[in-house]
Specification:
The protein is mainly α. The chain is about 85% helix and about 0% strand. The N and C termini lie far apart (about 135 Å).
C-alpha cells in the first residue's frame, strides 16, 4: 500500500510545475476567449450588415410604394372631381325614389287600416244580427247520452 502511495505521490507535479501549468492554461483560456469574441464580433457584424441591407431595401421599396400611391391619389382626385357632379345627380335621384317609396308605403298602410276597419264593422254587424246568441257548444266534451 505504501509503495502505491509513494508512486502516486511522485507522479504529482511539483508546485512550480503546477504553477507553470496554471499560467499556460490561463493564457490558452484567454487566447481562446479572445478568438471566440472576435468570431462572435465578426458574425454580429455580418448579421448587422445583412440587417442594414434588408432595411435599406425595405425603405427603398416603401418609398417607391409611396410614390405610386401619391400618383394614384392625384389621378383619383381628378376623377373624384368629375364623380362629385355625377354623385350629386345620383343622390338627388335616390332621394326622389326614396320619397316615392315612402308615399307608396304610407298609401299601403292606409289601405290596410281601412280594410281592418271594414272587417271590424262586418264582425260587429254580424254579432248584432245574431242577437248576441250563445253559439252551440260542441258535443265532444260531453258524455254520450242515448235516449
Amino acid at each position: 500500500m505504501e509503495a502505491t502511495s509513494a508512486a502516486h505521490f511522485s507522479s504529482l507535479p511539483t508546485p512550480s510545475r503546477r504553477l507553470s501549468q496554471i499560467r499556460r492554461t490561463k493564457k490558452k483560456t484567454q487566447d481562446k476567449m479572445f478568438s471566440e469574441i472576435m468570431e462572435v464580433t465578426h458574425n454580429e457584424r455580418a448579421h448587422l450588415n445583412e440587417w442594414k441591407d434588408v432595411v435599406a431595401k425595405y425603405r427603398k421599396d416603401a418609398c417607391e410604394r409611396e410614390d405610386r400611391r401619391d400618383q394614384r391619389e392625384d389621378r383619383r382626385d381628378e376623377r373624384e372631381d368629375r364623380r362629385d357632379v355625377r354623385d350629386e345627380r345620383w343622390w338627388q335621384e335616390d332621394q326622389r325614389c326614396r320619397q316615392e317609396d315612402q308615399r307608396w308605403r304610407d298609401a299601403m298602410l292606409q289601405l290596410l287600416r281601412d280594410q281592418t276597419d271594414i272587417l271590424q264593422r262586418l264582425v260587429d254587424l254580424q254579432e248584432e244580427q245574431r242577437g248576441h246568441r250563445v253559439p252551440l257548444q260542441p258535443l265532444c266534451n260531453h258524455p254520450h247520452h242515448v235516449p
